[in-house]
Amino acid sequence: MELERVTRSYVLGSVQVTGVDDVSLRIEVPRFTVLSGPSGSGKTTLLNLIGCIDRPDTGRITVLGHDVGRLQDDALSDFRGQHVGTVFQTFNLLPVLSVYENVEYPLLLARVPAAERRERVMALLQEVGLADKRAHWPGQLSGGQRQRVAIARALVRNPALVLADEPTANLDSRTGEAIIGLMRRMQRDKRIAFIFSSHDPRVLAAADEVVHIQDGRITGQGLQQPREVAA
Ligand SMILES: Nc1ncnc2c1ncn2[C@@H]1O[C@H](COP(=O)(O)OP(=O)(O)OP(=O)(O)O)[C@@H](O)[C@H]1O
Ligand SMILES: [Mg+2]
To answer: Average pLDDT over the chain, rounded to whole?
Structure first.
């Protein structure tokens, strides 16, 4: 994953606000990388660019060897669906679908045949420990359980890259710890890249690599020995 001199700013009326400013960054995969920085520093902007949800004003973004800036909108959303899983701070489950159906949804969009869908959804629900809750509605689950469903959904198409924007921010510390452990285990078992944003020191300590961002600029990047977290 590589960004070369990437800039993205927002126009608010007559004011231009910088999201990320001339960022060059290389993240090797598969690794567990955390983007760390204060509120407003550009973490979400950067994740949206890496995740092909947004496009830069200038600069080049290469994800898994693809120059994603050159892809047309349809090709970009196909690329995202196939290679990138996303986990949000507020879980973003569809409230009218069951747990099972939420995880199945990306496979329906990808026209995966029914038997294979069933196999993959059940395997992932087992892995996140929610097979017995498959018929529940999201509204009947705790925050930690909802985030587990969101993780299962992000992984169901076997992406090479999973992006998570402050995935533990709405969870109490014990539940957050379990979610970090689950993501760490998934990252190791499946050898995929996880890129997270967080200001939670426990999340930072569990990472292989920390990238510091401030005022839209990268101020540091380093590898570390990750703290062990029970899965
Ligand atoms: N849609 C938008 N319109 C206008 N300005 C925006 C928009 N999104 C972000 N910004 C601005 O871009 C800058 C970076 O925002 P961003 O959301 O990327 O920060 P962040 O590090 O994710 O913050 P937080 O920790 O609060 O989530 C901020 O100054 C923000 O106000
Ligand atoms: Mg943010």
So the answer is: 94
DSSP string, 173-214: HHHHHHHHHHHHHHHHHHT-EEEEE---HHHHHT-SEEEEEE
8 Cβ neighbours under 8 A, 6+ residues apart = 19, 20, 45, 49, 54, 55, 56, 57
What CATH number was assigned to the domain covering residues 2-94+157-223? 3.40.50.300
Task: Give the Cβ contact number of residue 160 at 10 Å.
Answer: 17
Average pLDDT over residues 49-66: 94
From the CB of 19, is ligand 1 less than 6 Å away?
yes
Nearest atom (ligand 1) to Cα of 48? 18
**Relative to the CA of 199, which ligand 1 atom is closest?**
25
Q: Is the pLDDT of residue 231 over 80?
A: no
Q: Which atom number of ligand 1 is nearest to the Cα of residue 197?
A: 22
Residue closest by Cα to atom 9 of ligand 1: 19
Distance 45 CA to ligand 2 centre (A): 7
Q: Give per-residue pLDDT as tens, 142-194.
A: 999 999 999 999 999 999 999 999 999 889 999 999 999 999 999 999 999 99
Q: Return the residue whose CA atom lies nearest to atom 6 of ligand 1.
A: 10
Q: Whose CA is nearest to atom 30 of ligand 1?
A: 40
Note whether 213 and 43 are within 8 A (CB): yes
